[in-house]
Amino acid sequence: MSAPAPLKKTPLYDQHVQLGAKVVDFGGWAMPVQYSSIMDEHQAVRTSLGVFDISHMGQFFAAGAGAADWLNTLLTNNVTRLEVGECQYTFLLNAAGGVIDDLIVYRIEDAAYLLVVNAAKIEEDFAWMQSHLTSGVSFQNCSDLFAGFAVQGPKSAQLFDAFFDGKYSRPARNEILTLQIDGATYYIARTGYTGEDGFEVFCPATEAVRSWKDILERGAQFNIKACGLGARDTLRLEMCYPLNGSDLSAETTPIEAGLSIFVDLQKPAFIGREALAEQRSAGVKRRLVPFKMAGASPPPRAHYPIFRNGIQIAETTSGTLSPTLKCGIGMAYIPTEFARIGEQIEVEIRGKRFPAVIEKKPLHRAGTAAA
Amino acid sequence: MNVPEELQYAASHEWLRLDGADGTVGITDHAQAELTDVVYVELPSVGKNVNAKDQVCVVESVKAASDIYSPISGTITAVNEALTANPALLNTDPFGEGWIFKIKVEAGEDIENLKSPAQYREQIGGSADGGI
Description:
The complex is a heterodimer of chains A (371) and B (132).
Chain A lengths: L7 E2 L3 H6 L3 E5 L2 E6 L3 H10 L2 E4 L4 E6 L3 H8 L12 E7 L5 E11 L2 E6 L4 H10 L6 E4 L4 E7 L3 H9 L11 E6 L2 E6 L8 E7 L3 H12 L5 E3 L1 H10 L34 H10 L3 E8 L11 E4 L2 E12 L4 E9 L8 E6 L2 E7 L13
Parallel strand pairs in A: 1-3, 4-14
Antiparallel strand pairs in A: 2-3, 4-10, 5-8, 5-9, 6-7, 7-8, 10-13, 11-12, 12-13, 15-18, 15-20, 16-17, 16-19, 17-18, 19-20
Chain B lengths: L7 E2 L4 E6 L2 E6 L1 H7 L2 E5 L6 E2 L4 E7 L3 E5 L4 E6 L2 H4 L3 H4 L8 E5 L11 H8 L8
Antiparallel strand pairs in B: 1-2, 2-3, 3-9, 4-6, 5-8, 6-7, 8-9
């Protein structure tokens, strides 16, 4: 047995330690799971403002006259629908239609795209995409050069204005602004993973500490809190946003995950298209749906068995105690015949079954992020 | 971290308060600080016989479920029902209102395996003066 590889650290690692974060192994990265309390951090984002280190996420750049067409052969959404400065959520699939990764592609110039991918998938995504590279496209993995923060919460727009003193206008939802600040390039996107208004900022790793401190300092007037992956998970699950590796995998497709709106089957060809078209016409056998525990119960967690009328029909892919709804919530791939809003199921927790009800997405509807 | 002098401690972060053969058990201040945000307590059954180091109940925070072990052998005589409605008592008052169960202690020798406040403080790396 060889010793496990040391955990990778983001440029903000020392800041997290100074702030008293509990640090955990997240896909090979030493990341803060919480600073003070998941509940408090969650609440800060829902009511005011939170900031997350997302420097572990990957940044790829695709550029050249053929970049859009090439990306369109690999990604499910239609890149040609993007104007410069716009972005879209999309999937990278294997030939069977299974999810390699879910990501956001930003059109940053006429023929240049920024892709932001999941940390644990950087190498796999890059190798896969590069193995399908065509001429006329320059494709680079710049993940190590970038740091990132997600500033999220209803006060995000006010922070943006205060931060830049009105010098720049805010990007609209799903748009990205490219700024040169003291010679460094900053990408500021109006995107996020919490259901609240907010910005995702990508900047050179060398600027990370200064920017992080600036954000905390300028955000103090809005009671900004540094937030960890624990709150990131409860926030995204209340919105039913999938987490790759839990709710998405190489064995599940975007159609089964209920995310067809990010799949353009009108495109003539992309990897995984045939499998998805087949599922689309034949219908899927299971669907990813959210559920809420119907009474007092321990919080559900991933991989708990789900029963209906005494027969196991699925297992949970995610679960937690919802800090906003004050009850257990989760998601699962339920056989299509039972994947209906209002359907009663049971979640088995340590050998005991607790009633739950299938709900509509999202579980939290009061978020400030405009679709 | 608070490590009261009058209690004994298990390496698995439970405390035991003994009054003759009547024991009261909870989790330490250090344990609650590590867990943070306790959201559910699955209490043990009254009348159950347990051995020292048996897993007897579960405490859940937002992020994880943690097993709670009995620090001593005996019969569980009462459980703190208040935790069902207010699991956060484990966070706010771990040595008082946040007690988990009472136990009629059977054999005495398990006591030898428990830690003194000084030994427990050493385990969690706290300062010798017990200051919070």
